[in-house]
Design goal:
mainly beta, 9 strands, globular
Length: 112
């Protein structure tokens, strides 16, 4: 674990890696669970549909968790559970950012 991650990622999360979908039952298959060091934040925003041809205007309140980690293993469609979540959540986005300023490998942002 890098020096930056050692002081910033003080929480843990459990990840269930997505393996496949059973075409007969339409159920997702997951691998063996593992833990990662992380920290997280919750984000709320209101999203508006401007309408258009055949669509009406409206608003939807969207809430999601953003989990920060230096662990490379979590991927799109994996499930994640952590202190602050309401059970298993699906990872919908994985992005990273440059940490070379600190002489470290990139860190990752997991969005549910």
């Amino acid at each position: 674990m890098s020096q930056t991650a050692n002081w910033s990622y003080t929480n843990t999360a459990t990840v269930r890696p997505f393996l496949s979908i059973d075409l007969m039952t339409q159920k997702a298959n997951y691998g063996e669970e593992y833990q990662i060091a992380c920290t997280w934040a919750e984000k709320h925003e209101q999203v508006r549909d401007m309408g258009g041809q055949g669509g009406s205007q409206g608003a939807e309140f969207v809430s999601r968790h953003m989990i920060y980690t230096e662990d490379k293993r979590p991927k799109f469609l994996d499930l994640i559970q952590f202190d602050g979540s309401d059970g298993w959540e699906e990872i919908r986005s994985v992005t990273n950012w440059d940490m070379s300023f600190f002489g470290e490998e990139p860190d990752f942002l997991l969005v549910t």
